[in-house]
Write a structure and sequence with these properties.
Elements: H1 2-43, H2 47-77
């Protein structure tokens, strides 16, 4: 009885093994393409990425200008203005 069960299961197992071999072959063929496309993706910048970077840089520059303007206003208000401060242009809080 065991021999009959083993004989009946052999064709089913052969299909699994063949599928595994085909999957491995397909993976081996597509691997260089995937690696090359990943390298190109890392080496290039999309328009959306460039826009995000430009927006980030603009926000950082705007934040820096705001910090400098607040520091200048504080110095002018406390009478410790620098020679480069434009106290007439500084708006009080």
């Amino acid at each position: 009885m065991k021999k009959l069960a083993i004989l009946l299961l052999l064709p089913a197992l052969g299909g699994c093994i063949a599928k595994a071999v085909v999957d491995t072959a397909v993976s081996a063929v597509t691997l260089p393409v995937k690696v090359a496309s990943k390298g190109v993706d890392l080496a290039t910048t999309s328009q959306a990425e460039a826009d995000q970077k430009a927006g980030r840089e603009l926000r950082k520059a705007d934040e820096q200008r705001g910090r400098e303007a607040r520091a200048m206003a504080d110095r002018c208000q406390h009478g410790a203005a620098l020679a480069t401060d434009q106290c007439s242009a500084a708006q009080p809080r």
